[in-house]
Design a protein that fits this description.
749 residues; alpha/beta; Rossmann fold; 4 domains; eight-stranded mixed β-sheet
Length: 749
């Protein structure tokens, strides 16, 4: 049994996981945020290196991929590469950081490249149930070559053993399940009334409004927004008074992040002028290092905040500026960071305390209650291992509208199970049907959705006991290669049109049946549009689409409609952006009219090509039809590819810098993916123009690779000056005296 690693004492769950890796088993680790899962990942990486094999580390978001690249490059100099679509550095290195999409694409494009891969590390593997991208994770687990061992790192989920049993079955190799429910730094959770009172979670009922009491927001100057902002300011000041900074305050809109940060600038966060000057000096140094304009309006706004130890972080912020803020927070220059929830996803930025604007958020359609898993992922950022005896979590609670039990339910309820989102993309369908024909439905039988449906129909429990590792062959059914002794083939038995979901979306296998029906419908679309011929083989456009992945049908329809035929590289960039762009409501996008840029006939041809595809999908019943072309960014892209500076783009739109950069990077990725398939289809000249369009877009602040290299250089410079800090985290166990009094944030006690 391993008791230490690199001189660090191991917790029991770490020992168990490392033993599984050393034994060559697949390993699934579920543990709270900050418990020490990264150490286990490092052991798997070193196992691969020692055995002369490669290792792949996948992450759900590019920001986390970039951070892992910087961390691992320091730990394993000269042995780490990265491939995320818009960045590719040493992609054949012994250790490669990838987005899950890139790894999945590699499986279908050139599986031979994975022949020497020993370990695949799936960080945040519970992301498999993300409605938009989860199917990519499931495809990765199902179709990875058998030589690959899987280390899945997860937050706690309620159906861990069910998920592990499926994973063992689909990987056809033993799996070790490691569950750790104890946090190394315990959390203390408080409910905070919008009127200023604070209670531990166990006494939150005391925050109910007294009959006839309470102050309503419509009596406050500024209305509801000012009312809640006042409540959040009160929390911030109370945390500062109790010396529980730094505070990570989660808010569910970009505007709320910026407004609260500005509203707290006059609070006393216990920082002297000297600390403010040091923070400002470091901010300006980093701004210069990342080539961000010092006159940028957001830089000016942040300068004022940074001096007070305050910053904000959300998707609308320029990516380079977000990295600057992350570095300032990590270095202790920021005492209050107002951030949206994506900041909690994997990025290793712990704080002393965490606060929430509330327990409900807008999901694009309605205000919904937070899931317990999401709450715990964010709350888990409270408490720094080796520094804090406990982490404090403060949840804003409006007793005029919310019952105390709602807060308790979110904070302490059962963590939601992982649910399959398996719904094969067109690219995956083309790749599988080209190889398997009608046996593609046996591949569908390998899905987690089918596994759950079968267990439910057979009356099997969804969760095993804590001592059942979900492996070692116990209680397994003979379903290798998608066959079952208990049931017939689901397609032959279920028939068409019976895939409607039950009330819970899964009752009696409804989720699996619905997925099968969508596969049938999408295959019909592919045959109808001649991506597959009568023999089920890919046509020219089918071969193009199966190599692109992501907007594959829109791009194929544009290419085969002739819309790209006579366009310049600049025009190709504009047209491709219309495929990926999703406008934000209420945002103005200016610049040249796309009809003038492309010509009226090309504009009409392109619009009809994609619109016709979307309408066919809607007619056939595809659940999520492709988006219609969106032309709003055309003028801005046209200005950019014709040499305008980023500052000039701001004169044309009130869109955030972060949104502009994200769309341009998505366009770059789609152009890059299209070049080689075009060349293989005999369209070398068009491929050359696509490559030129790619080069025109990829410059300045839009070039993600330049930002990543600059960040890595800064890390190397810091290490040479101050020495390396272990990316495994400090495993220290101080025992400072915990606070012995109730927080008092003002208001009624």
């Amino acid at each position: 049994m391993f008791e230490t690693y690199r001189g660090l004492p191991l917790d029991r769950f770490q020992q168990d996981a490392i033993a599984g890796i050393a034994a060559g088993e697949n390993v699934l680790v579920a543990a709270p945020t900050g418990a020490g899962k990264t150490l286990i990942a490092h052991f798997a990486l070193e196992q691969a290196l020692e055995q002369g094999k490669r290792a792949i580390y996948t992450a759900p978001i590019k920001a986390l991929s970039n951070q892992k690249y910087r961390d691992l490059s320091l730990a394993y100099p000269g042995k780490v590469g990265i491939s995320t679509g818009d960045v590719s550095i040493d992609a054949d290195a012994p250790i490669v950081i990838m987005t899950t999409e890139i790894f999945r694409n590699t499986i279908f494009e050139d599986a031979a490249r994975l022949g020497d891969v020993g370990w695949l590390i799936l960080d945040e593997v519970h992301f498999l149930d993300d409605p938009e991208r989860g199917t990519v994770w499931e495809e990765t687990l199902i179709f990875s070559p058998p030589n690959v061992r899987v280390l899945g790192l997860s937050a706690t989920v309620s159906n861990l053993y069910e998920f592990a049993a499926w994973l063992e079955e689909v990987r056809e190799h033993p799996i070790r399940v490691v569950l750790e429910e104890r946090r190394p730094v315990p959390l203390k959770i408080y409910g905070c009334s919008t009127e200023g009172s604070v209670r531990p979670l166990a006494k939150i009922d005391e925050l109910r409004l007294r009959r006839g009491g309470g102050t309503r927001w419509n009596r406050k100057p500024g209305g509801i927004r000012a009312y809640f902002q006042h409540a959040w300011r009160t929390i911030v000041q109370g945390v500062a008074d109790r010396e529980e900074l730094p505070l990570l305050f989660f808010l569910f809109s970009r505007a709320a992040c910026e407004e609260l940060a500005s509203a707290c600038v006059d609070l006393d966060l216990g920082r002297d002028d000297a600390a403010g000057r040091r923070a400002l000096v470091e901010f300006r140094r980093l701004i210069a290092a990342f080539d961000v304009e010092p006159t940028h309006p957001e830089v000016r706004a942040l300068e004022r905040l940074i001096q007070r130890g305050i910053a904000y972080h959300h998707a609308g912020v320029l990516p380079a500026l977000k990295e600057v803020i992350e570095r300032l927070f990590g270095a202790g220059h920021v005492s209050l960071l107002c951030a949206t929830e994506t900041f909690a996803l994997g990025v290793n930025m712990p704080a002393r305390s965490v606060a929430f604007e509330g327990i409900r958020k807008w999901n694009g359609q309605a205000r919904v209650q937070l899931e317990t898993r999401a709450f715990m992922q964010m709350a888990g950022r409270a408490g720094r291992r080796g520094m804090d005896a406990e982490g404090s979590v403060y949840v804003t609670f409006n007793p005029e509208q919310e019952e105390p039990r709602m807060v308790v339910q979110v904070a302490t309820g059962s963590v939601e199970p992982v649910r399959s989102q398996f719904n094969l993309s067109y690219g995956t369908l083309l790749n599988l049907y080209h190889r398997l024909g009608d046996k593609i439905f046996e591949a569908c039988e390998k899905s987690f959705a089918h596994f759950r449906a079968e267990r439910q129909e057979l009356g099997r429990a969804g969760r095993k006991g804590p001592h059942d590792r979900g492996g070692k062959g116990k209680g397994k059914r003979d379903r290798r290669k998608g066959k079952s002794k208990q049931r017939g083939h689901p397609l032959r038995d279920e028939g068409r049109g019976r895939g409607r979901k039950g009330p819970d979306g899964e009752r009696k296998g409804g989720r699996f049946k619905g997925m099968l029906e969508q596969v049938r419908i999408k295959l019909d679309v592919l045959f109808e549009l001649q991506y597959l011929d009568r023999e089920g083989k890919c046509t020219g456009r089918g071969n193009f689409a199966r190599a692109v992945f992501g907007h594959e049908l829109q791009m194929a329809e544009l290419v085969w409609s002739g819309a790209y035929d006579d366009l310049t590289a600049e025009q190709i960039a504009v047209l491709t952006t219309a495929v990926v762009f999703e406008p934000r409501k209420g945002v103005h996008y200016g610049g040249e009219d796309p009809r003038r840029i492309l010509g009226k006939q090309v504009f009409k041809t392109a619009t009809q090509a994609i619109t016709g595809l979307a309408q066919l999908e809607e007619k056939r019943g595809v659940n999520a039809p492709v988006g219609y072309p969106e032309w709003g960014m055309s003028g801005l892209v046209w200005a950019w590819v014709n040499g305008e500076e980023f500052a000039e783009l701001r004169e044309l739109t009130d869109a955030s810098d972060g949104d502009l950069v994200r769309v341009l990077r998505q366009t770059i990725q789609l152009l890059r993916l299209s070049v080689e398939p075009l060349r293989k289809e005999g369209r070398a000249e068009l491929a050359s123009r696509f490559r030129a369009a790619h080069a025109l877009l990829k410059r300045g602040l839009v070039d993600a690779e330049v930002q990543l290299r600059k960040g890595s250089e800064l890390e190397a410079e810091r290490v040479s000056t101050f020495g390396a800090v272990s990316s495994l985290g400090e495993v220290l166990h101080p025992d400072p005296s915990p606070p012995d009094s109730l927080p008092n944030f003002g208001g009624r006690s």
